[in-house]
Each structure stands twice: as C-alpha cells, then as structure tokens.
Write a structure and sequence with these properties.
It comes from Hungatella hathewayi. Keywords: Hydrolase. GO terms for molecular function: magnesium ion binding; phosphatase activity. InterPro entries: HAD-like_sf, HAD-SF_hydro_IIB, HAD_sf. This protein is an alpha/beta fold and about 280 residues long. It has two domains: about 20-95 and about 205-275, Rossmann fold (3-Layer(aba) Sandwich), CATH 3.40.50; about 100-200, Hypothetical Protein, Haloacid Dehalogenase-like Hydrolase, Chain: A, domain 2, CATH 3.30.1240. The protein is globular. The protein has a five-stranded parallel sheet with strand order 2-1-13-14-15. Strands 8-7-10-12-11 form a five-stranded antiparallel sheet. It has a three-stranded antiparallel sheet with strand order 3-4-5, covered by helices on one side. The chain has nine helices and 15 strands.
Length: about 280
C-alpha cells in the first residue's frame, strides 16, 4: 500500500485540502444488491456541510445513474459512460462520442452468435437483442426498455459514448470479439472485463479525463480531488487524483496504484477514506 499524499490543510474543503470527492458507483458505492446504505447518505450530507463536493464517475449512462444520484442527494455535476459525458443536472454539457461504422460487422457478428451487445448515447443504453441478460434486467424494470434496430442505425452518422459486448454465460465467444477488435485499438478505448465482457469508448477518454473536465467546471485542481474506485476502468482517475483510494474489494492492479487501500469494501471503504482524509470529525456520524 502506498502512503497517501499529504498536503497542507485548506481554508475550505477537507482536512487535507480535498475539495471534491469523486466515486465510482458499481463495486465502490454499491454492491450487486444496488443498495445505498444510510451511512453513506449521512457522509455525503456531512461533506456538503463542510463545503466538500461529492460527485460520481460511472460507466453507467445517465438513466442508470439517476436513481443512485438522487438517493445519495448528489447535486454536483457528475461523470457518465466512463468519462465520455459530464452532466449538470439533466443536461449533458460535455459528450465525447465515436463512430462505430468501422466495426459494424463485428457488432453484427457478436449479435448473431448470441452475445449481449449494448450501445449507449449520452442518455440511454439500448441492446440489439433480447438475451438472457437483457430479459433479466427488463424484469427488474430499469433497463433496456427499448431495443436498437441494427438495420435502422445510420452507422456513419450515429455517435455512441459506449458499446458493450457481454458473454454472461462465459461461453468463450467474447474472445473472438476481443481478437476482432484488436486492430482498432488506436481508434477506440477498449477495456476487457475478464472473460465476460469487452467495452468500447472514445479514444483517449477515460474517467480521469472526465474528472479533469468536471474539476475544471468547478474551479478545482486535480490535487484537490480524492477519487475512489474498485476496478481497472478507475485506474487513470485513481492515479491522477490528489488522493487515490481503492476499496478493499478492488482488484490488485488498482490497489497497487492507489495512495490508500481501505480496510473495508464498497461503501464502507469510501466512508473510511472520507473520514480519514476529508472530514474534520465534527458532526461525523
């Protein structure tokens, strides 16, 4: 575990000069149950009382962040689609989209062999077909209300912020997609999630670029940011933030790059780090 960077206390902000906390959502603020624990809400409210902003940086699209954002009382601008979008309330103030026309045959092939393929613009995520994964989330009522008609898309003009290929049953088919995408690594930001999924985003765009944009909007320097995460897509923002935190359930790559590795997992790890580096202790639950 690396020692946390130490700075002089600021007049406004946390005890170590933190003025903005940015947290990943899945695996960091919530686990698979997607439950927002009351203690986390209390910590977010306490941050606001101490003039520390609390924001989100997620791979989710706006529609999938909204419920969690409201439960946490987060009113600050936030990052969606792994840095491709910055939202202020309901408005996307920054979008870095990409054209998927060069890989449309790969997308078609993945859909044909039964993989889940989802395409996201700034506001919503749509699947090409009803796979088991899509059907399950439709039952939950919060995703994939509409499908994307492959043949109706103008692939040369349509801009996406994220495309996901998923093999939820681990059949090995995701490997053929990963290999097919390899020649396009200079055109897209490609993230592999074990043998389950491959995600595409805009090139030279990640959560760190999103945090830089977010901090710039708020007049805050990266050295005044604490970022918390659990997975490889959080790596760049963990490295670039003034304090980078890995929760206990984070993968080893992230832990090795973090300034602080929390003893607790998910939200409890975030609470631990916020109390340690940001809050004065007065009125902290």
């Amino acid at each position: 575990m690396a020692a946390a960077k130490v700075r002089q206390p600021a007049e406004a902000g946390g005890t170590m000069g933190v003025k903005l906390i940015v947290c990943d959502v899945d695996g960091t603020l919530i686990d698979h149950s997607e439950t927002v624990i009351p203690e986390l809400i209390q910590i977010v409210d306490q941050c606001r009382k101490e003039h520390i902003y609390f924001s989100l940086a997620s791979g989710r699209t706006k529609e999938l962040i909204e419920d969690i954002r409201l439960k946490l009382h987060v009113t600050e601008p936030y990052i969606a689609a792994n840095g491709a979008c910055v939202f202020v309330d309901d408005t996307c103030v920054l979008m870095k989209g990409f054209c998927a026309d060069p890989i449309r045959d790969i997308i078609s092939d993945a859909n044909r062999v039964g993989l889940t393929v989802t395409c996201s613009d700034a506001y919503q995520e749509r699947a090409l077909s009803v796979t088991d994964y899509v059907a399950e989330h439709r039952k939950l009522g919060n995703r994939f209300k509409q499908l994307l008609d492959f043949h109706a898309v103008d692939w040369k003009e349509q801009k996406f912020v994220k495309i996901m290929f998923m093999d939820e049953h681990r059949t090995g088919k995701i490997e053929r997609i990963r290999k097919a995408l390899k020649p396009y690594s200079s055109q897209y930001w490609i993230t592999t999630y074990s043998d389950v999924a491959v995600e595409l985003g805009p090139v030279q765009c990640n959560k760190a670029t999103g945090v830089r944009e977010l901090a710039g909007l708020m007049g805050i320097g990266m050295e005044e940011v604490m970022a918390c995460g659990d997975f490889t897509n959080d790596l760049e923002m963990i490295r670039e933030a003034g304090i980078g935190v890995a929760v206990a359930n984070a993968n080893e790559i992230l832990k090795s790059s973090a300034d602080y590795v929390a003893a607790s997992a998910c939200a409890c790890g975030v609470i631990e780090a916020v109390k340690k580096f940001c809050l004065s202790g007065n009125g902290v639950p």
